[in-house]
Amino acid sequence: MTDRSQGLTPEDLSAEDRIKRLQERRTTVGATPRARRRHPAARSRALFAGLALASFGVVGASMAATQSISTSTVAAPAPAPVVQTAVPAVTASPAPSSKATTPAPTGTRSAPVTRTRGS
Amino acid sequence: MRDQTWWYVARSGGIVAWALAALAVIWGLQLSTRLVRKPAPAWVLDLHRFLGGLAVVFVGVHLLGLALDSFFSFGLAELFVPFASPYKPTEVALGVVAMYLLVAVEVTSLLMKRMPRRIWRGVHYTSYAVFVLGTMHGLLAGTDGSNVVFRWACLIVSGIVLYMTLVRILAPRRAGASRSTADRAGTAG
Question: Using beta carbons and an 8 Å cutoff, which residues of A are at the interface with B?
Fold first, then answer.
């Protein structure tokens, strides 16, 4: 029978049922599978993002550690007055630093322990 | 903030950006050559896109570190205009050009569906130039160019990229087949 009051034919009702079933299925399954389908490598994305952040920190920390070791070894012979004359020559032009070849924009180079740009 | 913190941020960010860009290129070549059979093309494509985007983010970190570092006081002109840097202008310019090309590759990939395929492909091929220029920039302009570990990493990664590129050139049938697979997947990032 056709429900003329609502303007629905049997075909419409069955279509409506189908839509309802689909909606129910979606609500039971949830939104997670859709999100996964959108990004097939979602877990790998998170993994690589974490790895990138971790390596950023590790590389930066190792640079700082190497720098502090090199400055401490350079600064070590400072107490001897004879050696002291040689120390500024070493620290004023840190060998591994390519940046050291350019003139410093400010007079900060006079403090080699804090401003050397080696390793 | 410690005195040299931004300097370490700039250097570390640059190295990570280079590594991510290299991985993105390798993933893209894997997509077109399918040298390794196992990973699904959709997974490779998704990760390829993500790695490219992440490389852009870390280039931003690299620039931020340089801008905030007080030692050289890089301004906008030195960061964004090739040959404007007083420090090693040519070597720094390589990095500036690589950055622009990387951004172009990313933007055209995001707008791929709205632009002619030929233009997208032409711009996407410049990712090889991004890799070469970025590697040269790291080796020649960076303080870490003399670092043995970084040099070996550059050598190994360049070898992998070169090998995969040769495979792609010399095996056009396989490349063509996988390219159509990527096209069917909807995109080829």
Answer: 39-42, 44-45, 48-49, 52, 55-57, 59-60, 63-64, 67, 96-99, 102, 104-105, 108, 114-115, 117-119
